[in-house]
Amino acid sequence: MKISLKLGLWFSVCILLIEIVSMTYLHRNLVHSRVHQELDHLQATGNSQRDILEINSDSHTLSHIKLLGLHSDTQVVVTNTNGEVILTSIKINSSINDILNIPISNSKLPRNGKIIQSDWKSEQYISTVTAFNQNGKEFGYVYMFKNTADVQKLISQLNKHMIVASLLILFSVLIFIFFLSKALTKPLITMKEATKKLSKGDFTVTLPKPSNDELGELSEAIQTLANDLNYLKQERNEFLASISHELRTPLTYINGYADIARRPNLDEKDRVQYLEIIREESQRVSSLLKELFELAKLDQNTFSINKEKVNFCNYIHSIYERVLPAFKNKGIQLILDCRDNIFINLDPIRFEQVLINLLDNCLKYSKESSTTSVSVIEEYGILQLTIKDKGVGIPVEDLPHIFDRLYRVDKSRSRATGGFGLGLAIVKQLVEAHGGNITVESQVGEGTCFTIVLKR
What we know:
It is found in: Cell membrane. By secondary structure, this protein is of the alpha+beta class. The protein has helices at residues 3-55, 59-70, 94-100, 148-199, 214-261, 268-300, 312-330, 348-365, 423-433; strands at 74-80, 85-88, 114-117, 125-134, 137-147, 308-311, 333-337, 343-346, 371-379, 382-388, 437-443, 447-455. Strands 2-1-5-4-3 form a five-stranded antiparallel beta sheet, sandwiched between helices. Strand 1 and strand 2 (85-88) form a beta hairpin. The two termini are 57 Å apart.
């Protein structure tokens, strides 16, 4: 069943229940109000007749009251205190007689009279009674009657109006629900079609944001997912192309020089040279595969971070002493600034990979006679490690991607600088595995600054 039909049915059922309850309540109150209006009218008419009789109750007045009753939809019966009929504008039948025989005590009868018969459904008449006096003494009663057929006719007309109104409301609501369900489900259907495309590998979907509500947020989330999947697809293709390129080059060297080295008439000195090239290229392939396996472990969380309490300045000083000869050999000054006893929990082996990778980049891309500085500061329980060089720098357009896998600023893939574009990707994941964050700032020709922030 389509969602538009489901929504329409749910809305219809809910609105129908609401309409039934509200219309039942409204009908009951309208009927009750209408019947009480008739009873109040009867009582008011009886009070009016009482006032006339208390002023003058001669035969002329009585005939006038009778005449009014004959030409009205309300009938009047006047009796004395003994129950004898003085005046009637209607033929007294058994129903009227039963009402007249209801015992009435004048002392308990209110001045404005009371209702003695209000059952309009099963009785022939509704009725009120009002007492009137003569010369300060009780003299009789004024009974007012109205045929319930008239009341039932009014209620029947009211019922017809209620039914017509209910049908009009229901029809209007159904039309409203139809367009509302279409308006609500249209973006959902669009999203469904978009997810179908995504499931088939087509990530080039564009979804408009219908509104600033949950549907808009869902549309925006699907669009973000599509963009991310499209980016991942492109990244995967570039990753496979890069891996293919990185493997093809050394394997080509290995195969080519292996064929040459197999020649029987080859000079021994040349053979050794070719075998050395084969060894270097095989080491290059081995190094690439090692980094790929390392990255795969990070992705699958199969590697372990074994943290221990480390005096960070002593720890980084030992790494500084290890890499210092390589920097001196290239004529680069390496400066370390870490003077405090800062203790922090980290994995010494894993974090050493981070530092060696970053310092190796500084070594590769810095010119002779330049300076590379490593500084550590600690404030409010936050450790900040900064590694800054005066190298070639990174273009602005490349900065957002330098932590991507196999991304290299050097598009020529120079074998002189080495590297596969995996080092910084590994660095970023290892830093995040320690609960930290790494950022980079750079200007072409000015150098690059990596900043790692760790919580103590």
